[in-house]
Design a protein that fits this description.
156 residues, 73% helix, 2 strands
């Protein structure tokens, strides 16, 4: 995102697209590797990314009243603090090792969590802070789930 003023819905759309790109990256990695455990781990991560993408997209249609928050504008004086790093993560090779995949997945989730936490800190109204805090907490939980599941793939 290269404009100074953005709406919350633009950030959510960007994040959903990011999850889609990571899902494709993991899926492509699963197709390229001959290591069965690594392929299973990458397939699992691809499915988690698709689930997160769908969850974000559902915010536009879930019947809850996020519409007020989604329409809010915010002023960011420069690039968002995290997306350049997140973009770099999408370019990494993910078919090397389970440890490498855990590192990539963890870094992506942590950077997204930090992005949402940053937006919560900068929020102008309570509903916006609560919205982004909820997303940040969701990424913390997702990271714990991913690391636990990935460690199980190592034990197979």
């Amino acid at each position: 995102m290269d404009t100074r003023y953005n709406q919350v819905k633009d950030l959510i759309t960007w994040a959903a697209d990011y999850h889609a790109r990571m899902a494709k990256r993991y899926s492509d990695g699963a197709d390229r590797t001959d290591n069965e455990r690594l392929s299973m781990a990458l397939t699992y991560l691809a499915s988690r990314e698709v689930k997160m993408k769908s969850g974000l997209e559902a915010l536009f249609h879930d019947g809850s009243d996020h519409s007020e928050v989604m329409e809010l504008w915010f002023d960011e004086t420069g690039d968002f603090p995290q997306p350049p790093r997140l973009e770099e993560i999408t370019q990494r090779s993910v078919a090397d090792s389970i440890d490498g995949v855990i590192e990539t997945a963890s870094e992506a989730q942590e950077n997204l969590r930090a992005l949402y936490a940053h937006r919560a800190e900068c929020a102008k109204i309570e509903e916006e802070a609560a919205f982004f805090n909820s997303l940040a907490e969701g990424h913390e939980a997702e990271l714990r789930k991913i690391v636990t599941s990935m460690r199980e793939f190592e034990d197979i």
